[in-house]
Amino acid sequence: MITLIPGRISSINNSAIRYGAVAGVGSATTVETSFFMIVPTDGVINNVKFKLSAAPGAGKSYTVGLRINASTIDSVVISDSDVDGEIIGPYNVAPGDTLTYITTPSGTPVANPQLFTCLEFEGDDATESIILGTSTSTQSTTTGFWYSIWGASAGAISEVSNRSLMPTSGTFKKFYWKLNNDPGTSPDAYTATLKKNDVATSLTSTIVADNTTGNDTTNSFTTVAGDTISLKIDPVSTPSVGPRLGWGVVFIPDTTGEAVIMGFTANPTDASATEYNYLGGVNGTFSTTEASFTSLLDISTLKKLYVKFQTAPGSGKSYALTVRDDSADTSLVATVTNTNTTADSSSNTHDVTDISLVNLKIVPSGTPASNASSAWSVVVIAPTINTFTPSPMMFMMAQSGGLI
Length: 404
What we know:
The protein is mainly beta. The protein has one helix at residues 392-399, and strands at residues 2-10, 18-20, 24-27, 37-38, 43-52, 57-68, 71-80, 84-87, 91-93, 98-106, 115-123, 129-135, 145-148, 151-153, 164-165, 170-179, 189-196, 199-208, 213-223, 228-236, 245-253, 259-265, 275-277, 281-282, 295-297, 300-309, 314-325, 328-338, 342-344, 349-352, 356-365, 374-381. Strands 1, 3, 5, 8, 9 and 11 form a 6-stranded mixed β-sheet that branches. A hairpin with a 2-residue loop joins β27 and β28.
């Protein structure tokens, strides 16, 4: 199966090289190890799409590329009045490989554009999808932090302030992670644990000083739609160094083909205004400006929108959340009503028929209570490529001139 991974890198620089995360939303950075993500299984990356929010300008350009293990393996030049670019692949990856994007300006192009991205990952095991994540802040040396498992997130001191929501059922396995700095001196260490509904699972790994990588390829756990999943990082023996970290985990959906896109914010909802947020991303601020909160998505089918609030809207009140495709409403609508804190879009589906900018719209009704924590997710199904293999009879007919 194919996993589509959308991303958005904010404000790339028009005079110097910058790096960015491959999943979710994050700022461009001068330090590559600030936003790296880890491949958790063998596979290939194909068809990496790029889109700038503004053209570079006449005689100017941005070169954008994919990096594996801090080495650029392919890139494309987006120049003049163009805004789109693509690298095709295939690019082979293995467990433990790091992924980042790189941008290089030439000729002082337009300043601070957004870079929209989307890549395809296809595992050697056809049942496997992947979920990638990275921290946007330094891990505390004394306090455990929770992270959303999908995309780029800053550590939080509680699960309700940083979690991901499952839109479908399946199994998590093959967890890989990496620190950008050694924890210190043994026994200094950090332990990573995947949590389901804020309860520790068996999928866990500890990185002890003098090492920066770890994994758990033995354990696994199952999940169902509506479960919350988070990554908890705990310091051991008060490490002397607080690192940044990246990770990746395999998700095997019960229905093959169902990869996931996840979003979360601790930004309060507004009781009266229609607002927007990223479909895939963490801690985007709800905003009335839709164009500031979109991500790139390739051709696919979306289904199973799930939503979870921390606070119910109140009797006779509601919030309706709708997936948007190129500034138009889709049929994926989940409405959180009355004393409920969860909702889903039932059996509705939406086909993304071209490279699109997608996002999430939230509409309040009846002046609902402000909600301090919102998680949402959606299933994304990429089209499969059917390979045609001629039969021996067809070869014989072709050789005899009987097949045209």
